[in-house]
Amino acid sequence: MKSKVLILDNKIYPLSRVSNFLKQKKFEVLKPTETQSVFNLCSQANLEAVIVDLRLFGEKSSFFIQNLKENVLPEHVKLITISGQTPTHHILDKITLNS
């Protein structure tokens, strides 16, 4: 069974490069649809990690990330925040560290 990774980005700054890299490394990459609640998906999808682009909600991103971490994600799920300049191999290192 593949490890699942949820990617939260937006259409302005898509993380397709990260997504493709993770798929090559045999991860199942999930992205919420417009009708899916991110919070429900995070708590029910048996995830290995959640990757959040810091530009997702602009200035409100830090509040979203804090709420996600403190109130939604199970403790074993890694929360990885990235910017447009984050190398893809650093993301893989964070996911696989202590797996």
Account of the protein in words:
This protein has 99 residues and is an alpha/beta fold. Helices cover 37% and strands 18% of the residues. The chain contains 4 helices and 4 strands; from the N terminus they run βαβαβαβα. It has helices spanning 16-24, 38-44, 61-72, 88-96; strands at residues 4-8, 28-30, 49-53, 78-82. It has a 4-stranded parallel beta sheet, covered by helices on one side. Helix 3 (61-72) links the parallel strand 3 (49-53) and strand 4 (78-82). Helix 1 (16-24) crosses helix 4 (88-96). The longest helix is centred in the last third of the chain and has 12 residues, at 61-72. The radius of gyration is 12 Å and the shape is globular. The mean pLDDT is 84.
Brief digest:
The chain is built from 4 helices and 4 strands, in the order βαβαβαβα.
List the topology elements:
Layout: E1 4-8, H1 16-24, E2 28-30, H2 38-44, E3 49-53, H3 61-72, E4 78-82, H4 88-96
Parallel strand pairs: 1-2, 1-3, 3-4
Helix pairs in contact: 1-4
Low-confidence regions? none
Q: How big a fraction of the residues is strand?
A: 15-25%
Q: So what's the overall shape? A: globular
Helix content: 25-40%
Rg calc: 12 Å
**N-C termini distance:** 15 Å
Kindly report the average pLDDT value: 84
What's the arrangement of strands in the largest beta sheet? 2-1-3-4
How many H/I helical runs? 4
Order of helices and strands: EHEHEHEH
Structure class: alpha/beta
User: Would you count the extended β strands for me?
Assistant: 4
Please outline the major beta sheet. 4 strands, parallel
